[in-house]
Amino acid sequence: MDSIVERRKGIRVATEQDLHCFIAGKPVTVRMANLSTAGAQLIASDIMARTGDIVLLKIEGVTSLVGHVIWQKGELVGFEFNTPLHPAVVSYLGFEKHGVEKPDTVAEEPA
Predict the structure, then answer these.
(1) Sign of the dihedral through C-alpha 60, 63, 66, 67
(2) 99 assigned to some structural domain
(3) 77 vs 48: CA distance, rounded Å
(4) Which domain holds residue 45?
(5) What percent of the chain shows pLDDT beyond 70?
(6) Which of 87, 99, 78 is nearest to 34 (CA)?
(7) Is residue 106 part of a domain?
C-alpha cells in the first residue's frame, strides 16, 4: 500500500495561518500548517475529526473552501478540497508565512 506522502498531490507551501472553520458542523479555530492545490494540513486541538467529515474553511481574501477530512493523527488533520485550488492561489497564500509582500496580481499559468 502506498504511503500518505506518495499519495500527496501537488507541492505544499507552509502557511502557518490561524483560521476559523467548521468541521462536521462544529466551529473550531485551526492553524493551517501547509497548503497544496489538493488540500491542507490543519492543526486542531480538542477535536476528534473522522474521515469523511465535511470541512468549511475560510481564508481571508479567498472564497470559502469546502472539502472533507481524509486523515487525523492527534491534533493534525488532513483536509482535501472538493475543488482543487489554482497553483497561483497556493503560491499567493504561501507569501504570508515568509513575511513577503504579496503581489497585487498573480500571473496565470500559460495555457
Answers:
(1) negative
(2) no
(3) 9
(4) 4-94
(5) 76
(6) 78
(7) no
